[in-house]
Amino acid sequence: MSKKILLADDSVTIQKVISITFASEDYELIIVGDGETAVKKAKAESPDLVLADVAMPGKNGYEVSEALKNDPATAGIPVMLHAGNFEPLDKNEAARVKASCIRCWTKAR
């Protein structure tokens, strides 16, 4: 049985990169482009992991994490927050909303 990953990101580029990354793996990837839909999908689909962009329409990644962690039905779903080169990542805010992990997408140096 494949694991479900919910990707919440408004960037089509990131959506494609993540899709390609998991294409040959045994994961079901569910993709949404905004935070409001991410929360609804997480409640409906019970994914094994949520990957959420910190800057997207509707609810941002922090708000998605907070909404999921404050709902007993989704509180156990790990939430990984990610940010791009031009999006600041607030580690204190990520901790406050109980994100499981944070990741910055940066150019290789």
Structure at a glance:
The chain has 4 helices and 5 strands. With 109 residues, it is of the alpha/beta class. Helix 1 (12-22) links the parallel strand 1 (3-8) and strand 2.
Describe the structure in your own words:
This protein is α/β, with parallel strands linked by helices. The protein has a 5-stranded parallel β-sheet with strand order 2-1-3-4-5, sandwiched between helices. Helix 2 packs parallel to helix 3. The chain has 4 helices and 5 strands.
Query: DSSP helix count?
Result: 4
Quote the average pLDDT: 89
Number of DSSP strands?
5
Strand order of the largest sheet: 2-1-3-4-5
Category from helices, strands and their pairing: alpha/beta
Q: What is the makeup of the main sheet?
A: 5 strands, parallel
Q: Specify the oligomeric state.
A: single chain
Order of helices and strands: EHEHEHEHE
Helix percent reads: 25-40%
Low-confidence stretches: 104-109
Distance between the termini: 38 Å
Instruction: Please state the CA-atom Rg, rounded to the nearest Å.
Output: 13 Å
Overall geometric form: globular
Strand content: 15-25%
